[in-house]
Amino acid sequence: MSFNHKQMHARFMKTFRMNYEKSSSSSDDDNDFDRQGYKKCSGCTGWDHQLICCSACRRCYHNNCHIPPLPTTMAYTDLMSYKSWTCTMCIDIDHISKVMRERTSIPTESRLDNNEMIMASRILLELICDEKNSFQFIELPFKYSDPHYYKAISAPISLNSVKKRLLSKNNYYKSFSEVLFNIKKIYSNNLFYYSRDDPYHAMAQRQDYLLFQMLNKWVPQYRYCLSFTALPSIKSAKKNDME
Asked: Distance between CA atoms of 180 and 222, rounded to whole angstroms?
């Protein structure tokens, strides 16, 4: 890492810590609504008044930010179209969990079944909505601002990458384990790349632990299958060697 890059990174981290501390001190009400009636999308965290709001919780979404995406016919202006709608975060996942726990055989179809799709969507949306820890992992780092990331990690992946694959029409994922492998890879990549004193390293740890907690609670048969499978794709043994 060159001197100029180190200097730029230090300046960025100072700004990051100031913004992170400020956001952490905000109240929940301030995070969800502002004084002009705008709401914050739980998926992309963007402020907008054209959002669909869940009838069972305070979360609101753009149509394409929810998992699965909401139909375009479901407009924020048509209250009747969504007054009884509940988001994926409010689905009774315990029933899905029970079905998946009691499964005695491996599905023969080379695609996710309905229960696996719902469980994968819930886990992914839970991670995305963990706003204070997920924002760095929703999209990949910009290549022009952090080119070293792409020199160190040969197969970068983000939460939105997994989302696009999960929702693809050609059934990208053939099994539930593949979804988990890709999610786990996000955090193993970032835990390798960022040093232990970097806030992004701590955020990756917290998201990784949140993933483990969900698996342990809902599909415990998958909780330990990840630790030895989703290793980071490494181009260089040490990030600091790249100068």
From this structure: 9
Sign of CA dihedral 138, 143, 145, 150: positive
- Residue 61 pairs in a beta bridge with 52
Q: How far apart are CA 34 and CA 36, in angstroms?
A: 6
The burial of 113, by beta-carbon neighbours within 10 Å (0-12 exposed, 13-18 middle, 19 or more buried), is given as middle
Q: Quick check: helix, strand or coil at residue 205?
A: helix
User: Looking at this protein, which amino acid is placed at residue 16?
Assistant: F
Q: Kindly give the confidence (pLDDT) of every residue in the chain, 243 residues in length, as a single tens digit, with 9 standing for 90 and above.
A: 444 544 455 444 444 444 444 444 444 444 455 546 688 999 998 898 888 989 898 899 999 999 999 988 887 666 556 678 899 999 999 999 999 998 766 665 688 999 999 999 999 999 999 999 999 999 999 988 889 999 999 899 999 999 999 999 888 999 999 999 999 999 999 999 999 999 999 999 999 999 999 999 999 988 876 544 444 444 543 443 433
Question: Which tokens go with 225?
Answer: 């299958």
Q: How far apart are CA 153 and CA 151, in angstroms?
A: 6
pTM of the model: 0.77
Q: C-alpha angle with apex 43: 38 to 46, nearest 5 degrees?
A: 35
Angle between helical axes of 176-193 and 199-218 (0-180°, round to 10):
160
H/E segment holding residue 40: strand 39-40
CA gap 40, 62 in Å, rounded: 9
Tell me which residue has tokens 């949306």: 125
